[in-house]
Amino acid sequence: MATAVETMTVQAPDPIAVPGPLARALVERDQAVFAPCAGRAYPFVIERGEGCYVWDVDGNRYLDLNAGIAVVAAGHSHPAIVSAIQDQATRFTHMAGTDFYNEPMIRLCEKIESLMPRTGLGQTTGRDWQVFLCNSGTEAVEGAIKMARYVTGRQGIIAFFGAFHGRSYGSLSLTAGSSKQRHGYYPLVPGTYHSFFANPYRRPFDVAPEQVTEACLGYLEQTLLRTIVGPQDVAAIIVEPIQGEAGYVVPAPGFISGLREICDRHGILLIADEVQSGVGRTGKMWAFEHEGIIPDIVASAKGLGGGMPVGAVIGQTPLMQRWIAGTHGNTYGGNGVVSAAAYETLALVEQELTANAAEVGAYLQSGLADLQRHYDCIGDVRGRGLMIGVEFQSVPGTSLDGAAMAQQIMDAAFKRGGLLLMAGTSTIRFCPPLTLTRAQADEALAIFRAAIDDVLAA
Ligand code: PLP
């Protein structure tokens, strides 16, 4: 039977010369004034966006397959979000949410709480979860680890190799994907440790795929917790239910639930970093729901704001009640305009976009798996919903290794009107807006295939 790839009817656009003159001029202006520490992927300069499409300043249209790094969950400039922003901006924009009260932030917290799993432990407030609002993923992680230390009275925080939790000092100390991100910033926060993530494709131990969970949990419990930091000194284990910047790595079955068990046994809090994987992206509201567990604390951001900067520390009420007044705060958390946009985004995600991510994500992933059967250079296709990674590997007949191949394919896709991004060293990630249609998934597959052909033919 012919595969979807063999019967592909959608044509990728012909390659164009990018950046155009207007984009090139803006890149030059940017280079003069913007700090060079941010390494850009390629010279795309947005002029406007609508749904899954964006236009650059030279008028070229692109299919956005990264959503501004998994942010614009409802697509670019969704009319309901734009109107919520406009409406709120005419009433008030900001009134320091951790010093005063405002209805948009309360409504947002109620909405977030309603989207969490029930624990039955929220008797004191009538709600199972409480929320602290902030401005970004790294700030959500900082809040989560501060809260964990504060309420447990313990210092240790355990994260995983490959993790990305952010770039501020606490989160950077937990981030362990590339030494370049840490170099020059030592000393980092003491009391932070790393263990092995159960990556079934690039296994950290020389074991069969079905043994990787046991090996990783075994190292954590038998080695790290026995020889380096005793469980009585560990406040929290923080984990991405799907590692994001490491290359969209879905952990081997039983790994996340095994962490939950270890935490329960030792009174350690489990923090799920859902900054990239949360808010409907994986086809469920939170990626931890695929694992049948409930974390103690969830860090959220990115998709939560639908394009506005917001983060949230979401904790089980009995814990949050012990995080007493005056021990944490900020200026912008609970900003009126941001809260209105986030509320509207969550309503869309809840009503339709999570289901769409599951359905179109499965369709896109099966098309990518077809491509894997077709191209030896694709080593692995994995993911959940619209959080899909395609990992490349070197093959006979080309001098390119997996990393160079992924990089060149991303560049070739840009020329053919598709905005992709790398994750990890040799993986291309697909994290489009959750509004992606099947027709747009077909377009994505056509662009991706043409880009692979371009690189293989070069
Ligand atoms: N946590 C995860 C899982 C992330 O993927 C990221 C960003 O990519 C962060 C935290 C940091 O978020 P931000 O860049 O908003 O600070």
Describe the protein's architecture and organization.
This protein is an alpha/beta fold and 458 residues long. The chain has 13 helices and 15 strands. Strands 4-10-9-8-7-5-6 form a 7-stranded mixed β-sheet, sandwiched between helices. The chain has a 4-stranded mixed β-sheet with strand order 1-2-3-13. Helix 3 (79-91) packs antiparallel against helix 11 (336-374), helix 8 packs parallel to helix 9 and helix 11 (336-374) packs across helix 13. The structure holds pyridoxal-5'-phosphate. The site of pyridoxal-5'-phosphate has 14 residues, from helix 5.
How many β-strand runs?
15
Indicate the proportion of strand residues.
Answer: 15-25%
Structural class: alpha/beta
Distance between the termini: 31 Å
Using only C-alpha atoms, the radius of gyration works out to: 22 Å
Order of helices and strands: HEEEHHHEHEHHEHEHEEEHHEEHEEEH
